[in-house]
């Protein structure tokens, strides 16, 4: 890099070398990002019970073990139910709020926007302690409704933020045109506004789904033996046992997230709203 | 507390007014029709926000207030909360090095992680913003987003596998003859920082990519045609113009890094002196909720102070750059 700075009008070869030198760090960062995920996926194929990497032999036996284990199946079902509940809740109230916060013209809008995104700014352990203490009083610890509310709280700001991005790009004259053409408030919202907010809503749904699917920081405290989600079961398994079955579950969880992303990416350009 | 609390009071009244009053509207006191319409629209605008406000009041504001109340409770010898109020928990947080050193350690680690995320995120974001539409761009994008979509436990576990006694890193080090036998890498501070940076990095890359993608290419070309080399153009044009992205990335990463506890716990073990982990162990193994509350609220205040200091710093830097 120092060479190119000393010779600004360097010949083409040197410039190309400089460009390669500039891209190398980027390549290293991309490898860094993917390395632990790739390592997990590969070690889940280990044929022995050690988590050595590279794997000492290839087999799918750990997947079979996981898929025939009652504990893991119960967790998979719980996580699946939670994802559906959390996405439905956060997308419904988050879309309304994201749109209302951008479009509304009411006193205290700034304060409310701040409140809506505030959970992102608060360290997760505080939210976890707050909900644990609160839920203990309400009898919601180790229950499905408790996890549903906790996941919704963590996922909500993401939905609001992506919907706000879409709402900011929405042209108000389109809604006014619908109103002029005789559509009522509800009809305008359903047939004009919602379709235009779709990219933000779908991106928010993806975020809500993967947040719920991967949430541990709060769940680790408010869940219990009857409500162990997949990531919480991984969390305790990693602390006490190290065998490739956990790697297999992790790989399945990654695949689930990728599937959610791919499914939604078919309907919208995901990178647009990030 | 008082400011957000006014919202749901407005909300329900507006809702009932909307049902009963309907199109006739209730604001009789207004002189002009336009003013009435605007005001009605204004109050009605609160309607869609109401569910979220109620939700956040019930599940975010109230629990935080209750944690605050909890932190003011004295406890008996068994850690059982007593009646009355005192600052004894905060005194413990500030005087017992077990807690106070964890706070400083968390602050230092979060700053280090933030700096590393911006430094590492920059080249990645630069590549992502310069990549042309197509397969390469999609692949790079997937590389950035897929860790974000993967659970923190899974990513941390990946590092556990990599750095474990018979993991790849130890094998390479032993294979190269740098180590005689596998070392205990997992509990080291280095590995904790590496894994926390890995968890946070996408949060820095995405806003940086947006900022870098928004820079008009003609500005770089103008700089080059005026005689600046690529390096000088990078420092004098690209970096200053990407400052908003750096600011967003840093202010997102810093608070997340301040409270992180899952990753350090899995990778570094429960004895890592980080405030988030101390709160967790106070809750789960000591059952001393009041001191956990005091420690976590001190951590929150420190986080908010840090975020606003970062914001001020970036504003100052930006103002200096733009004259």
TrEMBL record, chain A:
Every copy of the ABC transmembrane type-1 domain together lies at: 76-264
The record's keywords, sorted A to Z, are: Cell inner membrane, Cell membrane, Membrane, Transmembrane, Transmembrane helix, Transport
User: What compartments host this protein?
Assistant: Cell inner membrane; Cell membrane
Gene Ontology biological-process annotations: transmembrane transport
Q: How does it sit in the membrane?
A: Multi-pass membrane protein
Q: Does the keyword Transmembrane helix apply?
A: yes
Give GO cellular component annotations, separated by semicolons: plasma membrane
Q: Which residues cross the membrane?
A: 20-42, 81-102, 114-135, 147-167, 245-264
Instruction: Provide the family line.
Output: Belongs to the binding-protein-dependent transport system permease family.
The protein here is known as ABC transporter permease
**Phylogenetic classification of the source organism:** Bacteria, Bacillati, Actinomycetota, Actinomycetes, Kitasatosporales
Automatic annotation (TrEMBL), chain B:
Q: Might you name a Gene Ontology BP term for this protein?
A: transmembrane transport
- Mark out the compositionally biased spans (Basic and acidic residues): 12-21
Q: Give me the ranges of the annotated region Disordered.
A: 1-34
Any Pfam family hit: BPD_transp_1
Q: Which GO terms describe its cellular component?
A: plasma membrane
Membrane spanning residue stretches: 45-69, 102-127, 139-165, 185-213, 234-262, 291-317
User: What residues does the ABC transmembrane type-1 domain cover?
Assistant: 103-310
As for membrane topology, the entry says: Multi-pass membrane protein
Question: Sorted alphabetically, which keywords does the UniProt record give?
Answer: Cell membrane, Membrane, Transmembrane, Transmembrane helix, Transport
Q: Where in the cell is it found?
A: Cell membrane
Q: Which family does it belong to?
A: Belongs to the binding-protein-dependent transport system permease family. CysTW subfamily.
Q: What is this protein called?
A: ABC transporter permease
Gene source species: Streptomyces corynorhini
